[in-house]
Design a protein that fits this description.
Strands 2-1-3-4-13-12-11-8-9 form a nine-stranded mixed beta sheet, sandwiched between helices. Strands 5-10 form a two-stranded antiparallel ribbon. A two-stranded antiparallel sheet has the order 6-7. 39% of the residues are buried. The protein contains seven helices and 13 strands. Helix 3 packs across helix 4 (111-119). With 247 residues, it is an alpha/beta fold. It has helices spanning 27-35, 50-54, 86-101, 111-119, 128-132, 161-166, 225-246; strands at residues 8-13, 38-43, 59-62, 106-109, 124-125, 140-143, 146-148, 150-156, 170-175, 180-181, 188-194, 200-205, 211-214. The chain has a single domain (8-246), classed as 3-Layer(aba) Sandwich (Rossmann fold), CATH 3.40.50. Helices cover 29% and strands 25% of the residues.
């Protein structure tokens, strides 16, 4: 199969080490990439050279998961911070930096958005309810230690790549986070907010050919075509890059 005709190879970061459990990733990410026409390649943390990992790939998805160590963005510890994994933090920050520098198409999802922001010098809100209140629930906690997704409406800037992707400016999203962007770093612009409380929900890089971060989980909205369109646009961006490299 020629380079021009092969499917795009999409790297997706996995969850980190949890005791003796294997590296893992929810299958929704895999299904979304395949449905968009890409071939998923799982990237467990631990590799020390991002170039070796990303060189053969056409695009990168930074997946969701636990919180980033606040040390990474000179933040403060908080009782709500959970599942900190320094190995995963180091690995994903390196991948994000490399992808942005090499203009590799990149999609950050939930934690992945936060990785993109932190690696560029931005900061995070440790616990959203303490800043924005609880008029909108960005995740459910029916009991201590149990966290569940929920839904709310996001408003998208009509003059944005994200709006072009989903062909809509108001969509219902599946949300599963308790942190969000505080300081937006240079080079990024905010393109979506939670409709009711104003939490930043999506950003785009101003100079990179295709770098978008969303705070929600589009892979969980399997029956809503708005969200699959994000994966389709991402995979199309990798094909565009392929064609430019092989022209």
């Amino acid at each position: 199969m020629s380079i021009k005709s092969r499917k795009a190879l999409i790297g997706i970061t996995t969850y980190g080490r949890q005791a003796a459990l294997p590296f893992s990733l929810p299958s929704n990410y895999i299904d979304a990439v395949r449905a968009a026409g890409g071939t998923p390649i799982l990237l467990p943390p631990g590799e020390t050279d991002p170039a070796i990992v990303l060189e053969p790939l056409d695009g990168l998805i930074l997946s969701g998961g636990g919180d980033i160590n606040p040390v990474c963005y000179k933040g403060c510890d908080h009782a709500s911070i959970y599942s900190v994994d320094s190995e995963r933090d180091t690995f994903e920050l390196q991948l994000a930096k490399f992808a942005l520098e090499r203009h590799l198409p990149v999609l950050g999802i939930c934690r992945g958005l936060q990785i993109l922001i932190v690696v560029c010098g931005g900061t995070l809100i440790p616990h959203v309810p303490e800043v924005y209140g609880t008029s909108v629930l960005h995740r459910l906690e029916p009991e201590p230690g149990r966290r569940l997704p929920t839904e709310h409406i996001v408003s998208i800037d009509v003059e944005s790549r994200l709006a072009d992707c989903v062909q809509n400016t108001h969509i219902t999203v599946v949300s599963w986070h308790h942190q969000a962007i505080h300081k937006v770093p240079s080079g990024w612009r905010v393109v979506a907010h939670a409709l009711e409380d104003g939490v930043i929900e999506a950003v785009e890089h101003e100079h990179h050919p295709w770098a978008i971060g969303v705070q929600w989980h589009p892979e969980l909205s399997v029956n809503d075509p708005n969200h699959q369109k994000i994966f389709e646009a991402f995979v199309q961006a990798t094909r565009t890059r392929q064609s430019l490299l092989t022209a």
